[in-house]
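Hi F.,

I've been meaning to write this up properly since the lab meeting, where we talked about keeping a consistent format for the predictions we share between groups. The idea is simple: the sequence comes first, exactly as it goes in, then the structure tokens exactly as they come out, then a line or two of notes. No screenshots and no reformatting. I'm using this chain as the first example so we have something concrete to point to.
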Amino acid sequence: MRYPAHFQGLAQLEQEALSLSSYCMHLIHGLLQTEEYTTALFDYAFPPLDREEVTKLVAARMDRKALFERKPAAVVNVILEEAALRRHIGGPEVMRGQYAHLTECAARPNVVVQVMPMSQAGHAGLPGPMTLIETPEETPVAYLEGHGQSILLSKPEEVGVLARRYAMIRSQALGPEESVRFIEQLMGEL
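Output, unedited:
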């Protein structure tokens, strides 16, 4: 099994997606992670994973990045909570590389990275993380995940609520340029 059972449905959708929009609260989105950050995440897993399993999971996560290079490339929008950026997974050197990688990703024409600052105390994303996917058939799908469990939603009324919520989250987050400056500032603080 290349991906955990709860993630297999999204993995397939992700690789075929026309667009992917995610709101992340605690961690950097998997598509935007460096290998070092991902390795550190899996090293923190509980119950603990053996080195061989960590190596396989890291390789699978890195392979997901193929969607950035395919033709046509997927449009990717990711909103990261400031807390996810300030959580020093793997330590300062890993985070320095992760911040640099985020700014490189944000420079791609098909990628938008935004930061939800902690100063935005009340906002539409407080109920939790989400991913919205537009399939090749232009069908919207929503994915919710936590603690090794996931839900794929395809009912238009359910996905519609989350799409409207995501639009509000985007409007409440820092703009793309301001977000990159924020990430660069964090890199300078290390």
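Notes:
The helical segments are 8-16, 35-43, 51-63, 82-86, 92-106, 156-172, 176-189.
The chain has a mean pLDDT of 92.

If this format works for you, I'll send the rest the same way.

G.
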